Amino acid sequence: MAVQPTSEYFDLLNQAVSREIQVSIQYILQHAKMEKLMRKVIPENILLDKTTYEAVGKFLKEIAIQEMKHAADIMERIYYLGGSATTKSNKPVIGNSLSEFAKLGAKAEEEALVLYRKIIEAARAIGDVETREMFEKIYSQEEQHLFKFQEYVNMKDEPEGAETQPLSEWRKIFTDDYFVLLNRAVAAEISAIIQYTNQHEKASLLALREKISPLEVVTESNKAKVISDLLKKTFMVEMEHLEKISERIYLLEGECTVTPDPLPQVGETADDFVKLDHEAENIAIVLYRQIIAEALKRGDTTTRRMFEDIVLQEEEHYWSFDDFLR
Question: pTM here?
Fold first, then answer.
């Protein structure tokens, strides 16, 4: 290895991973909360085809995906340098209004720029050109995010005199214990997103990329590569699940958890990835069937149908991983 990273260097890089995971979750949950917030201002914007909330919601989702790509790139670099990428996230903070989202986003991006300047200098000091160039590119993108958030920090969020309406009879089925159950799904999706992203990047390790058989040489692929490609597709579906479930919770006036449960597990080999992910999908399917049963009992048709669709996709993931266990 031409570069000799220290434990302190890996710690800096993992601070970046934790921050990128944090803001990705933070921005996607804020994006999901937009639907609820937008309804409060519809009377003031009834003649508009598009509200500020829709515009901001769109760029929040775009930035969330970009931040997770940053996390993935940094994880891959850590593994390439011989380190181990973290699965821990700094705590996301969601907020309750557009201006709060913007202030929290601006704060997070400012903190990132400070950290990434340190990493760029540290990379330059040890001659790690690849990492330095990667963080210079990320730095530029984070700076653009900061400027975008700064456009909205003084945004007026609600019309004067806006009041919370009394709870309608049909909404009384959405009790605290029901939100706890729905949030178990949010926690499971966050866990899967982090786990699958980390495993996808760990598959870049030389030991996992080695071609052994003639077939692997000819096809330019092996088991780890196939599983890595599967994980990338699966991760994107799990992001959609997180968005849908959190949006439903916010629309029903609940709040979303930001903590993964169960804790993400990565493993050391491609076989480990499959076993861990197979079990993660099993846990999700069992949980989501419980939610479907509870939604049916309460008469919450929309949530039931949403989770029935999600379960079908989770079962597809389960069987995809199951194929590698035989």
Answer: 0.90
